[in-house]
Amino acid sequence: MSGSFQPESAWFPYEPSKQARLLPPLVLAYAGDAIYEVAVRQYLISLPNLRPNHLHRAATGLVSAKAQSTILAYLEPLLTEEEKDVARQGRNAKSGTIPKNADVLEYRHATGFECLIGYLYYTGQQARIQEIVHSSFEYMMNRPK
User: Fold this and answer.
1) What pLDDT score was predicted for residue 101?
2) 64 touches 80 (CB < 8 A)
3) What distance in Å separates the CA atoms of residue 102 and residue 79, rounded to the nearest whole number?
4) What's the pLDDT tens digit per position in 59-104?
5) Are 102 and 66 spatial neighbours (Cβ–Cβ below 8 Å)?
6) Rounded Cα–Cα distance for residues 141 and 112 (Å)
7) Which of 23, 29, 33, 124 is catalytic?
8) 2, pLDDT greater than 60
9) Secondary structure letter of residue 123 according to DSSP
10) Per-residue b or e along 68-96, where b marks 16 or more CB atoms closer than 10 Å to that residue's CB
11) Quick check: is 33 catalytic?
């Protein structure tokens, strides 16, 4: 798989300062957080209930550290070794911030998930992002509560 930026597959043509493999995990997580947030919002807007309060509550249920930690645990067996390595690097990165609504372990796993999404984006793997995001939504919407 490519480790270089592919502007034709990016939302915007701004090339990162380094290849994706050389970007710090927290930088990848920073981008991945935003990418995943857009995916969640686009998904929710595709559903029939468009009341703003409902959208916000549903989005929170998918983008919270607890949800992302749960998603990463579900996805782990489906990830390639490279993807597992990227998620592990994100999970092990020391962010220096204290999570507000999650325990430290959930927060770190969520960072691993976001790091993976950011890495896939910067390596031009849009189809893989879509697979992972789709699987995440399916799992979270259909799992027993």
Assistant:
1) 78
2) no
3) 24
4) 999 999 999 999 999 999 999 999 999 999 999 998 777 777 788 8
5) yes
6) 21
7) 33
8) no
9) T
10) bbbbbeebeeebeeebbebbebbbebeee
11) yes
Chain position carrying tokens 């927060």: 107
Cα separation, 132 vs 135, in Å, equals 5
Q: Which two tokens stand for residue 137?
A: 């939504």
Report d(CA 63, CA 41) in Å as an integer.
10
CA neighbor of 92 nearest in space, from 26, 17, 16: 26
Q: Return the structure tokens found at 91.
A: 């999970």
18 token code pair? 């380094």
3-state secondary structure of 15: coil
Q: How remote is the C-alpha of 99 from its chain's centroid?
A: 17
- Residue 120: which residues within 8 A CB-CB, separation 6 or more? 83, 126, 128, 129, 132
| Long-range CB pairs of 134-138, under 8 A, 24+ apart, other chains included | 135/74, 135/75, 135/78, 136/62, 136/71, 136/74, 136/75, 137/43, 137/62
